[in-house]
Amino acid sequence: MRNAVTWLFVPGSRPERFAKAAGAGADVVIVDLEDAVPADAKAAARKNLRSAWPIGSSVAVRINGRSSPEFDADVALCRELDPAAVVLPKTESAQDVEVTAEATGSPVLGLVETARGFINLGEICAAPGLVRLVFGSIDLALDLGVTADAALDTSRSDLVRWSAACGLPAPLDGVTPSINDTEAIERDSRRAKEWGFGGKLCIHPAQLPVVRDAMRPSPEEVAWARRVAEADEQALGAAVSLDGAMIDRPVVERARRLLRAAE
Hints:
It is a single chain. The protein has 263 residues and is an alpha/beta fold. Helix content is 46%, strand content 16%. Helix 9 runs parallel beside helix 10 (208-215) and helix 11 (219-235) crosses helix 12 (249-262). It is globular and about 65 Å long.
């Protein structure tokens, strides 16, 4: 859960797609009981998930939020099935995380997608049971009443900043609605990487290889990181320069992170 890059949604109302999603190559499959399932199909979606379980080793469940009448039934099902993680929509407080973690017995990924959630990021990140933050970009844009994607940049920065400050892994970027627009998926994924995100939500298997390639370190970055690591090893702790630039500890650590990500 902490290092996974590609996260693939599959609707809980489409059990015929469960096996395909599990074999699509995503790091984590998220069975969605929330947005992808019509209100009159929620109970059937839970029945589908119970009947098909276990789906795979790395499966999370997106439940309905705490304010939903479906919440209690969703968390009871997760307590029974024990998924790898629970994705909690509309995460707005530490209590949201704590109640969900205790009720399900599973680690919680906080999907932050409202202005109130972003105001309370500090307490959310400190909540017991939280393992990672997720960016609900589409819902946040609706909540804020903005249409320009750049208007969400401060929110992106907040997620990355608070994750780092609280020792959480890099957050997950939201979905790209375009399924077949490779350029849009790649653009969004590269932007997420540049902002400091460590993974991305996907809504179709076709998005997975594009996201994976865009978010992994480029060959040029890996080559640079290897040169930095080699120069640091040869220096034996002494100050050293590479290509006319001084290599200090932050530079070395960045190179090591790139190499770990490439592996």
